[in-house]
Design a protein that fits this description.
The structure holds two protein chains of two kinds. By secondary structure, chain A is of the alpha/beta class. In chain A, 43% of the residues lie in helices and 24% in strands. The longest helix of chain A is centred in the C-terminal third of the chain and has 18 residues. By secondary structure, chain B is of the alpha+beta class. In chain B, strands 6-8-9-11-10 form a five-stranded mixed β-sheet, covered by helices on one side. The longest helix of chain B is centred in the N-terminal third of the chain and has 53 residues. The chains are: A alpha/beta, B alpha+beta. The interface between A and B is large, with 47 and 51 residues.
């Protein structure tokens, strides 16, 4: 799986690259418009993570170029711009997703996986992991072919964990993923605890292994080994 | 009041004394003319009378005096100068049954070495009647001018002021987010042409300033968000490290909390300036009841957590044309506020009517000046964790859409009322 990360802030680029590499992606990087343009013209990528504000050009121009090349690459914009114009423009040009900085790495990872799932397996909307199977189209989850009776939040939580297996995910990252941007986070930490508890209980009830581990003081880990 | 109506009033106010003066001048000219005519006639009659008097028997004065009421001839001892004297008198007219003005000619002549005085009178025009007809004429003139002014104004305002209204309309609807160069079209009227040139210059300047400001906000955002993104991403990487102890994890979590607060703060301030700069110009019809129900659903856990009872009263909820993001933020902030400052087992009432919305919640009264409730960073309850920007954003969005928002506290309820 080849991913190109276009970002001019080296420290951020480095962090993204490290996180995605351990997920098993083959990561390439570009820090300005020209090198990015050069790379997309020379190689095929499964997914491109592109910042809008880059030296010597714009991330939007990169997307235009990709569309001109009739590339089937998944595109995800990461931008510090809160500006709605850019978001709309990016999505209109054919980007698949838009993530506003600052973001959590597990969030970026989950979004990339969702794009790849849509792009790669046409019509296949199942995530299968051991005894757990998720139908992303119907938003239903199964353990050993028996359907889990879970709430929407618990479903989202499960998919998020499956995308970030064997990673320590901070509570803040999960809260940001599960709740709306505008919602006050102070109470949501308590709600998160309840959701995790319920999901774990329901998974165990249907005979799933105990994957969800609490990392004291920080968050959770969906441990598979 | 329309400019043309105002100018018409001024015209009429100035026209009135002019017409009056004209009337007075008319009166004098016409009465002089009439007098002159009367005098000429009197002189002619005098000449005829004297001629006939000279050829007849002069001893019989009665004959003349009786034959014509208007002519009086009598002998005088000592004549005054032999010339015509004109004067105005009043005399009783039996047919008209009133005193009427007469023009009188008094003159002297000589016959057979005797002097005679001749007085010829002639009923004169009535000055009040003349004044009346002149006044009537002027009144008709004034009325005609008034009516024609109204019609001319209507025509002129349609034709002459067309470019002005066009510019005004454009000025009212212009959006700086999407402006074309020189939006104000040239006009053949010199004044409007100058106005449009000035407006074009002004909008260009404003557009430039607007863009500079927008650029600045965006740059500031970029500059701040990027280091925040680095910190966040680095924390995500750091916690993957197996050597990190639980104690360090706790420290890291505290750092992360502050970073989250910082990025929320930055985001809120940016949002405020974005609304201020009116950078939200895409909008679509929003069904208010639907949107509020959706928002309330998002806060379901928060409501249950505090055991808050929700009362809805929807009477003819309207469909408003709003920017979807702003609408979401507006109601989300209001509901969040109503939950955050609520008490355990409290209530929230949502009332939607066609032209207003009321969201009220139970809670302790404010400690502080309630007029500052919509100010940025206004905090009334230090125990509640909040940035103090939520209601400032609400106010800003309401201002953006010309909604009025009012806050009041009655019966242990905080009441926010938005009139669309």
């Amino acid at each position: 799986m080849k991913v190109l990360i276009i970002e001019d802030e080296r420290s951020l680029l480095d962090a993204v690259e490290k996180y995605l590499s351990t997920e098993g992606y083959l990561c390439e990087t570009a820090t300005d418009y020209n090198s990015a343009l050069d790379k997309i013209n020379r190689y095929e990528y499964d997914c491109i993570v592109v910042d809008i504000t880059i030296p010597n050009g714009s991330g939007l121009q990169i997307i235009e170029e990709l569309k001109r090349l009739k590339s089937n690459t998944g595109i995800i914009i990461i931008s510090a711009k809160h500006s709605l114009d850019d978001k709309l423009k990016g999505l209109q040009l054919g980007s698949d997703d838009y993530l506003t900085k600052p973001f959590h790495l597990p969030e970026l990872n989950a979004r990339i996986q969702a794009i790849l799932r849509r792009k790669r397996f046409d019509g296949n909307n199942f995530i299968v992991f051991n005894e757990i199977k998720v139908d992303t189209l119907a938003r239903r989850a199964f353990v050993n072919e028996r359907e889990l009776s879970i709430t929407l939040k618990e479903y989202d939580l499960l998919v998020y964990f499956l995308a970030n297996k064997n990673r320590v995910i901070s509570k803040s990252a999960i809260v940001e993923h599960l709740w709306h941007d505008n919602i006050d986070q102070s109470d949501t930490y308590n709600f998160l605890y309840t959701h995790i508890k319920n999901l774990r209980k329901k998974l165990l009830e249907l005979g799933s292994a105990d994957y969800i581990q609490t990392i004291y003081g920080m968050g959770y880990n969906f441990k598979t080994n | 009041m329309k400019l043309l109506n105002k100018s018409t009033i001024y015209y009429l106010v100035f026209l009135l004394p002019i017409l009056l003066a004209c009337g007075i001048i008319f009166y004098f000219i016409i009465s002089q003319q009439i007098n002159a005519n009367a005098d000429e006639a009197l002189v002619a009659q005098k000449k005829l009378t004297i001629e006939s008097f000279i050829v007849t028997d002069s001893s019989n004065l009665h004959f003349f005096n009786d034959a014509d009421d208007d002519v009086k001839i009598r002998t005088v001892q000592k004549p005054l100068a032999l010339q015509n004297y004109f004067l105005d008198t009043l005399a009783y007219d039996s047919t008209e049954m009133e005193m009427i003005p007469f023009r009188e000619l008094k003159s002297y002549f000589k016959k057979d070495k005797k002097y005679f005085e001749i007085i010829i009178t002639r009923s004169n025009f009535k000055s009040d009647e003349l004044a009346e007809s002149i006044a009537l004429m002027l009144a008709i003139m004034f009325a005609l001018i008034l009516i024609s002014f109204i019609f001319i104004n209507r025509y002129v305002s349609r034709k002459l002021f067309k470019p002005f209204y066009k510019s005004l309309n454009l000025l009212n609807t212009i959006s700086f987010a999407d402006i074309k160069p020189n939006p104000f079209n040239p006009s053949t009227t010199k004044e409007f042409q100058e106005l449009n040139i000035a407006l074009n210059r002004m909008t260009e300047k404003m557009f430039l300033d607007f863009n500079n400001q927008k650029q600045f906000t965006e740059n500031a955002s970029h500059e701040l968000q990027t280091p925040l993104a680095v910190i966040k991403a680095r924390i995500d990487l750091l916690i993957q490290n197996k050597d990190v102890t639980a104690e360090i994890m706790e420290q890291v979590q505290e750092i992360e909390k502050s970073v989250n607060k910082l990025s929320l703060l930055n985001k809120s301030l940016l949002l405020l300036s974005n609304i201020e700069n009116k950078q939200f110009d895409s909008f679509n019809p929003t069904q208010l009841a639907e949107l509020i129900d959706k928002t309330i659903l998002e806060f379901d856990e928060h409501l249950k957590n505090k055991s808050i009872s929700l009362y809805k009263e929807y009477n003819f909820p309207p469909t408003l044309v709003l920017n979807s993001l702003l609408a979401e933020i507006l109601f989300s902030n209001l509901i969040q506020n109503a939950i955050r400052h609520n008490i355990e087992n409290g209530i929230i009432k949502v009332e939607i009517n066609n032209d207003y919305l009321v969201i009220s919640n139970s809670g302790a009264s404010l400690k502080g000046n309630e007029h500052t409730i919509f100010n940025r960073f206004a905090k009334f309850n230090p125990s509640v964790e909040s940035l103090g920007l939520g209601l400032a954003i609400v106010k800003q969005i309401c201002d953006y859409y010309n909604f009025t928002i009012q806050y009041s506290y009655t019966g242990n309820l905080h009441i926010f009322r938005i009139v669309f």
